[in-house]
């Protein structure tokens, strides 16, 4: 179930050229509970959005953090609308690995390495892609994630 913040995030990313999967469920092979990632997205470097044949420029707030969309881009997105949230649990290794494997933008051989390197960073370049952890929140301020404020 999407909340208001997730709807805003969806349309923000969509109007910035991302193709999105909403509420991506991470299935547990060993049983137990499942979790989800709010959005998974890809943006190909030549993508642009046009309304009434008018090309929209990407928002500077996200474009500059993702190298001006100079490469294909994959994002694993968490949207947090409350004042308090578990920042540490937003981008667990399981969530990153599952989402990245599903998107398929890097080969299986490098997926684990990318996930480990991405753990402490906002973005990483691999196999022609910029891969990012994206946090959209009221108080988006983390050095290990691309942050956009609601």
Give an overview of the whole structure.
There is one protein chain. Helix 3 (93-103) packs antiparallel against helix 4. This protein has helices at 4-15, 60-63, 93-103, 108-118; strands at residues 19-26, 35-43, 49-51, 54-56, 72-80, 123-126, 129-137, 146-149. The protein is globular, with a radius of gyration of 15 Å. The model has no long low-confidence stretch (mean pLDDT 87). Strand 6 (123-126) and strand 7 (129-137) form a beta hairpin. The strands form two sheets. Strands 1, 2, 5, 6, 7 and 8 form a six-stranded mixed beta sheet that branches. The chain is of the alpha/beta class and 150 residues long.
Q: What is the compact description of this entry?
A:
The chain is an alpha/beta fold.
Strand and helix layout:
Layout (H helix, E strand, L loop, with lengths): L3 H12 L3 E8 L8 E9 L5 E3 L2 E3 L3 H4 L8 E9 L12 H11 L4 H11 L4 E4 L2 E9 L8 E4 L1
Helix pairs in contact: 3-4
